[in-house]
Amino acid sequence: MENTIEIPFKREFLDNCLADFKTKKDLYDKMYDYAIVGESDARKEYKNNPNRANLKVKTNFIKKFIKEERDYLLSNKITYISRTDNKEELNFIEFKTLHWSENHDKNLLRDLLTYGQTFELYYTKKQNNEMLFNSIIVSPREGYVYRDDFGNITLFMRFFKRKFDTTKQYIDLYTKNFIFHCDENFTQIDVPTPNTFGEVPVSVAEVSRYKELDTLYNELKDLQDAYETNLSDLVNEISDYRLAYFIAAGCTMDEKIIADMKSKGIINVSDKDIVMKFLTKDINDTFVQNTLNTLKKNIYELSSHIDTNEKLQSNTSGSALRNRLIGLEQRVRDSEGALKDLIQNRLYFMFLLFNKLNESNYDYRDVTQKFTLNIPQDDLIVAQVLSQLGIGENVSLQTGLAQLSFVSNPNKEIELIKAEKEANAPKIDLDGIGLDGGAKP
User: Fold this and answer.
1) Pfam families attached here (predicted)?
2) Is 332 exposed, middle or buried (0-12, 13-18, 19+ CB in 10 A)?
3) Greatest alpha-carbon span in the chain
């Protein structure tokens, strides 16, 4: 390939990054099995017993809890708020992301909760003479970030396989000025693409500084395996219970008598010393059930989740339900912080691009995000508190409306209130008023 721009990193450095990526990938693949596929080591490594029942039960709490946390945080749409009340800026953000998938942030959060970190990669695409700002989610199984000593991202590596060529792995290297397209040996296979942003166009979300160590997988894997193993053992024990054996003591029966007995269900014997009965076994279901209950209780306690199938009192208030969810809410708030950081960086790249193209002056620091958790909230109590504080006097109308669960966008709600007041205001006919203030004759 002629006139190829050289990669601004030494081969030894790239090999070290690749080796570090491969070292962690095995762990991320295991996390993917539990949280996305729903497959556990307990099911994969369940010991088969020849000639006996070998059913393997799937009861994946990790996958269930991740989906619950995602829905608690993002079932209600994220609201953008301008600190300077710049409505043009907010409309611009909404317009430039209209072509994005409605589930983009949900998928992003699911990867974040699965691996403890995830990446959002940005790129541009021209369509109908319009520059589009796009992004793709790259999990730690597919991407690698290198930071310098000051925490700045200087290189992002994206690993992928092409649809009809799955035997080869390709690597895109994102640097400040160019995107280099390489094979698995870091040999360039195409002309580098200029980087429109002038910076490595990637945002990183981390649930905490401990990343994969602070995940549901790390906390629950052993309990998950123990629960599925014990449950599978119990199911197989019950299945094997069907294998009842018939004991005939003090006599010998040929095959014809045995077949006749199976057909008719009866057998006559004349000798009183002959004993005929079924051999059965007793299952200590109390011990097994206590073990399963203990494991399940530990799973819910460590994850701060609650069993929604548990029967509650009919008069349970919204505040009581909220108190039961306080542990889960605190956990979800940590994820909210990580997602906020990433979205703030997303806006940075969006404004960086379009401020150059449109000569605008939008500032990502002016925009904040509001997340409305999808959990029970007692709006009656909130309304009473706001009324006592004096909404519109001691508390701004925008702040007050933001506290109500059914108001997702306080700014638009205020606009609707103003529009309704103007529409319902009495109309004054100025043409019908005389100079002295009385009606015209």
Assistant:
1) SPP1_portal
2) buried
3) 130
